[in-house]
Specification:
381 residues, alpha/beta, seven-stranded antiparallel beta sheet, 10 helices, 49% helix
Length: 381
């Protein structure tokens, strides 16, 4: 009898500081046909306690670990349970360049507890996967061959291509504001209706935010059970009938600034390694488009600053020359005013002339001050 056939089921230990990660690990193993008891060790004390109770059949250690350096953990495992196999899992993403990380984990656990191996996927299934890969690669090449100058058109074209080539009902791109803890929709394409939407905003749940920051993608096969997206159930997922979703964070300068989202309606859906890679690739594509958008905005601001500076210099020179001419007119009008007693009929006209010149001089001084505002710093003396 193998450990997999034992009653009660074999127990494995999951060393992680994230309870939701243990829940997800349990679902991943169940998807691989492994009905095991998964126990979390969230710190050194709980790890020692679990090892004293009964050595597990295998230990899964997430790296990097929130429990601190891996060396002390390995030393504790070696001392307390020297015969227990240790399976290293590098973060949430796994190694997507080879195969589905869930399949890799399942194979490692099966070997550790002497469980029978699962059969490989049938040849027609693998052939269909390769065909989809070719279709996606062709569509992505067309997408990357276009220019990014029209930001809104880039968003629309990207979401449409993703929905149609990856066979999902909804594909969307969201802005992530980590300071305000909000998500704002930049573009959402609904394949059945063929329409685009934008502008919807919602709070950013903490488990989902943490998953974005530590993952290359968030693959949720069943939205009703995954703890990472539980915060969206009542306000977004259930009302829209979204049963599964695949989200890839969009990063700029090491920070998460957005998320590319594939949403499947109807029934739960497992996401293949191709789809995970596709989502991450499209998120990188959107990140490059953001760089072009921001560079264009900066170039526009610099152009406007140069134009305003040029106008300011012209206004300064023109105002200075006009003010000199008005000073001459004002001086002569004052001389005429002094002699107006001989010509009473000219007094009112001279007063109006002086008032107009003074008003124009004030306007020119204000224009000169505004045009040269960057050369002075006002402060109270």
């Amino acid at each position: 009898m193998t450990a997999f056939d034992s009653d009660p089921p074999a127990r494995i230990l999951h060393v992680t500081d994230d309870a939701s990660a243990t829940q997800i690990l349990t679902h991943e193993l169940e998807a691989q046909g492994l009905g095991l008891i998964v126990t979390q060790a969230s710190d050194h004390a709980s790890l020692e306690s679990a090892l004293r109770a009964a050595p597990p059949r295998a230990t899964v250690l997430d790296l990097p670990s929130g429990l601190g350096p891996a060396a002390p953990l390995l030393e504790l495992l070696r001392t307390r349970a020297p015969e227990t196999p240790v399976i290293f899992r590098w973060g949430w993403a796994g190694n997507w360049s080879v195969e589905d990380p869930t399949a890799q984990l399942g194979r490692a656990v099966r070997r550790a507890i002497d469980a029978p191996e699962q059969a490989l996927e049938p040849l027609p299934v693998r052939a269909a996967l390769l065909e989809r890969l070719a279709v996606f690669q062709e569509a992505q090449l067309r997408l990357q061959g276009r220019e990014y100058w029209d930001w809104d058109e880039t968003l629309r074209e990207t979401t449409e291509m993703a929905a149609r080539t990856l066979a999902v009902e909804r594909a969307s791109i969201w802005d992530v504001d980590l300071e305000r803890q909000t998500l704002t929709c930049l573009d959402l394409f609904a394949a059945e209706a063929g329409t685009h939407e934008r502008g919807e905003s919602m709070p950013l749940p903490l488990p989902y935010r943490d998953a974005l920051q530590r993952s290359l993608s968030i693959d949720v096969s069943d939205s009703e059970t995954d703890p990472r997206t539980a915060g969206f159930l009542g306000q977004y997922l259930r009302p829209k009938g979204i049963a599964a979703l695949l989200d890839a964070p969009i990063r700029r300068d090491g920070r998460v600034v957005g998320v590319f989202c594939l949403e499947h309606t109807g029934r739960a859906r497992p996401w293949s390694v191709l789809e995970r890679c596709a989502a991450a690739s499209l998120a990188t594509h959107v990140s490059r488009a953001m760089e072009v958008r921001d560079r264009r905005a900066l170039e526009h601001r610099l152009h406007e600053a140069d134009r305003i500076a040029l106008v300011g210099r012209v206004a300064t020179l023109l105002s200075h020359d006009l003010n000199n001419a008005l000073t001459v007119v004002l001086g002569h009008s004052e001389l005429l005013q002094a002699r107006a007693s001989r010509y009473p009929e000219l007094a009112a006209d001279l007063a109006s002339l002086q008032l107009g010149v003074q008003q124009m001089s004030g306007i020119l001084r204000g224009l000169m001050s505004h045009a040269r505002r960057d050369q002075f710093e006002r402060r109270r003396l």
